[in-house]
Structure formats: structure tokens, C-alpha cells
Amino acid sequence: MLYKSTRGGDANLPSMDVIKQGIASDGGLFVPDEIPGLSMDDFRMLAQEGYRERAVKVLSLFLTDYSQEDLTRCVYSAYNLEKFDVPDIAPVLKLDDQLYILELWHGPTCAFKDMALQLLPHLMVTAAKRTGEKDDIVILVATSGDTGKAALEGFKDVSGTHVVVFYPKEGVSSMQQLQMITQEGANVHVVAVEGNFDSAQSGVKAIFADKQLEQKMEQKGYRFSSANSINWGRLVPQIVYYISAWLNMLKAGEISEDQLVDVVVPTGNFGNILAAYYAKRMGVPIHRLICASNRNKVLADFINTGIYDRRREFYKTISPSMDILISSNLERLLFELSGGDHERVKTWMASLQSEGQYRIDDDSLHRLQEVFWGGYADDAQTLQAIRSTYQEYNYVLDPHTAVGKWVYDEYRRQTGDDHKAILASTASPFKFAGDVLRAILGQDAVEGRGEFELLDVLSRVSGLNIPLSLAGLKEKNIRHTISCRQDQMKDVVIELLKIDEV
Ligand SMILES: *Cc1c(COP(=O)(O)O)cnc(C)c1O
User: Which intervals hold domain Threonine synthase N-terminal (predicted)?
Assistant: First the structure.
């Protein structure tokens, strides 16, 4: 399997190069030349296997230049009971006869980003080794809250790698911030950036595109890569859990082989839902992909109108990991919708850059709407979804997943669609204990309580144990205090890596 850029610049690259490089040299994203399929026989066989065997199978179809032994080793190093707190890795919980929750937050940082970022470092280090890479890999990360911590945990003390994480100073939850600024490891740096996630993401993209800096880095024996979902090595592991969820339901007799299901995904950068789209293309009988946005509803508007317009106010919400106006991974979907027409993709992306918006053609819009449905929930609706789900099912949703739940209910109300649905649950409620408790118990119950006291209260309310990685933060020292403006990010990288020194 070979890869090419969505903008036509790079072509015929094996997956190891693509994973090492992160983003294509023309600024586009890497996509596979074709999307491999799984037959019903494959599915029947995989239904009898565990998560890891399923992962090895799916990875082997996309990452064909890795040996089976390498993939197996990577997968077993990533998905095990030292890192995850359930043997199923990504369990499916039945909420009622209609709706199933795919819990993606049983990893070390309590958000779905672990599903990919526990694996990516192994894939990257293996790629470096097998291709005779001499340079150290420097991972630059822009985070809306969860990617940063997951990348830090995944790459900490991995030899031959360094990580620099940029997070928006005012844009992450207190627990998310605490998770990052207490991060241990000799090869990690965490920097607060003034502005929102888009500022951090644009700053990182500008550093990637800086040829002069790249040269300087080379002289020092460094090369950049990305652990954001623009890296193909982040997306493939995410395809696995949609396939696995469907297989779990099949095996449990909840659905039959030819029964279509809907998939609901709370969306920000469009990576997670794109993985579900690839799963559909591979043969999982998915009917609709329901794209749930928070008040930053640029994607919902796009799906409904075909116009992507980022020129709008940015809102800080209680689902901060979805506070995004430039959804990078949409570019991969546009490539597919346009039938692989990289010229058209390039035109749209250029228009987004210069005008802040683009409009896709009617054919592409039609194809988009055949598969995707977009909706959104504001903060009040998000809180209401947490409260009503708790009252009805005694199940506690985090605010991101609650956005998905609200939009799903709205979807069913508007369309009458009664397919069974899988809701991707993207974070543990303990990561956002304050807002979750405000929804369930009211403002008074939260007022004046510290972050760790809230964890205790939520544990009592939900009947769940506090994840050890969050409870343990109480004892940790703050190790990262640097902050900067977007235009200073490059200088910070130069300083942290000591690139200017001779
Ligand atoms: C990152 C994140 C999202 C958004 O996922 P995308 O792949 O960026 O669409 C949703 N919820 C949580 C908790 C996240 O961390």
C-alpha cells in the first residue's frame, strides 16, 4: 500500500515514510492509494478474536511495509493491562435497545486519544529503525486539551524522540492543564500559548512549513514529525475500534451480519469520525455517520450547506477538545468526496487560507450528505444531556460525549431513523468532573470545591472508581511553566532544542 498527498505533491510513499514525516511536503495530508476491504469471512474470523488481534489485522492491511512481527510487537506494547484498565481495551456498553456506547477512554490519560497515541510511538520508532533513520524525531503537538497529554504519555522517555506540546493557555480544563504541566520524562516539553487551539495549530503548521528551520534542524540531527491526527499513524489505530465495536455487537448477538448501524461521533478536528468513515469504506455496515459539534459548529454548518466558513466567533465551551474552527482532517474526506481530485482539494484549501472559507461543488455535497448528518449542542444542551442520561440510565457522560448524545437524539427526532447506533464516548467524565457534577447535582454542589474533592464526589455519584492517573496528580510537582505568543512558538522550539548553539 502506497500513500500520496491530498494536494498532489507527494506520491508513492510507503507507510513508514508517511508516519515519520507526519504531513506531506506540499502541506497536504497523506492518504492511501486505495482503501482495503474486509470480507464477511474476515469479520466472522475477527469476531472470535480479541482487540489486539483485530488491531494487527487492520494495521497489516494499511501498513504493508511493516512486518507482521513488528506490528504484533507494537500492538501488544500499546494495548495491555499496564496501560488500559479493562481487558477489552475499547468496551461497548449497551445503554438501551437502541444505543450502544463505545468507551474509548480506558487508557492512561482517560481520553480516546490514547487509543492512537499509545501505539503511534511504537510505529514511529519501528519505522525509524527499519528505514535506517539517523536523526532524532521531534514531535510537535498542538492540543485542544487531550492530544497533548496523550502524546506526552505515549512518547515520554522513548529514545530517539522529543516532544514539544503547545496548548492554548485559557482553552483547556483545569484537569487537562494539570495533567500536562506535571508531565514527567526527560524528552518532553510543555508550553502554554496565548490564544485558542487554532492559534496553536496554525503556529505548529507554520513551524512545519519553515524550510530554513528544517535545514538548521537537520544540521543538529533532528527532524520534525506530528502526533496530531494529521499523521496517518494516528488514524489507522482509530479505524480498529469502530470495526471492533461492530464485531462485539455481532458476537453478542445484538445485531445481525447485514444489519446497518449508525455511528455518532463528537467531533473537533474530524479525525475520529473520519476513522469511522474509513471503517465504513472497509465494509462495516454503517448507515449514517452523525457528526456532533458543540457551539463551534463549523462542521455542522458545512455538512448542511457545503460551505465551510471559519470566519466566525470562537466560543470557549465545556467540551474544550472540540473547540476548533479549522478541522484539519476534513481535507482527507474532501479528497475522497471529490473522487481523488487533488486540484480541487488544493483550490478549496487555498480559498480557506486566503478567504477563510470555501464552497464544495454540488456532486461532492450530495456525496457528503448521503453519508454524514451534522448537528450541534450548546453548553446548556450538553449539561441537559448529561443530566437526563444520568437520570434515565444511571450512566455518567463526559461533556464531549454528551454533545454526541444530544445530537443523536435530535437526529432521531428529525429523521425517524431507527437503526441501532454506536456513540463514541471520547473521555472519562472524571476529566471534567466540575461540569459533569454541575449537570447532575447543580451549581451548589460544585461551588467552592477543589478539583480533587470533585473527583471524590463524582466517584460517589457514579459508583465508579477514580482513575488512578487522575487521583495521582495530587502528589505531582508542576514541571512546565513556559508560555508564549503564537509568533514566538518557533523561537521557543529553537531554544528548547538548543538548535542555535554551536
Ligand atoms: C480530541 C477530542 C475530540 C475530538 O476528536 P477529533 O478527532 O478531533 O474530531 C472529542 N472529544 C474528546 C474528549 C477529545 O479529546
Answer: 3-79
- Return d(Cα 152, Cα 475) in angstroms, integer: 18
CB of 151 closer than 6 angstroms to any ligand 1 atom: no
Q: Is 321 in the pocket of ligand 1 (CB under 6 A)?
A: yes
The total number of residues shown for the chain amounts to: 502
Residue 384 has pLDDT above 90, yes or no: yes
Structural domain spans, the chain: 92-107+233-432, 433-466
| 270 pocket-lining for ligand 1 (C-beta < 6 Å) | yes
Cβ–Cβ under 8 Å, residues 239 and 278: yes
pLDDT digits (tens, 9 = 90+) for 419-476: 999 999 999 999 999 999 999 999 999 999 999 999 999 999 999 999 999 999 999 9
Distance 414 CA to ligand 1 centre (A): 25
CA of 108 to the centre of ligand 1 (A): 16
Distance CA 273, CA 238 (A): 9
pLDDT above 70 covers what percent of the chain?
A: 100
Of 482, 485, 480, 481, the C-alpha closest to 193 is: 485
The pTM of this model reads 0.95
Ligand 1 close to Cβ of residue 225 (< 6 A): no
CB of 426 closer than 6 angstroms to any ligand 1 atom = yes
Residue 6 per-residue DSSP state: T
Report how far residue 371's alpha carbon sits from residue 382's, in angstroms, rounded to the nearest whole number.
24
* Ligand 1 pocket test, candidate residues 273, 303, 397, 426, most atoms within 8 A of CB: 426
pLDDT at 502: 61
Active site residue 134: no
CA torsion through residues 416, 419, 424, 430, sign = positive
Q: How many CB atoms lie within 10 A of CB 186?
A: 8
Q: Which atom of ligand 1 is nearest to the CA of 324?
A: 8
Q: Does the domain spanning 92-107+233-432 belong to CATH 3.30.200.20?
A: no
**Distance of CA 320 from the midpoint of ligand 1 (Å):** 9
Q: Is the CB of 271 under 6 A from ligand 1?
A: yes
Helix, coil or strand: residue 192 = strand
Only one residue has cell 528544517, namely 214
pLDDT digit string, tens, across residues 60-114: 999 999 999 999 999 999 999 999 999 999 999 999 999 999 999 999 999 999 9
Kindly report, residue by residue over 172-213, the tens digit of the pLDDT.
888 899 999 999 999 999 999 999 888 998 899 899 889 999
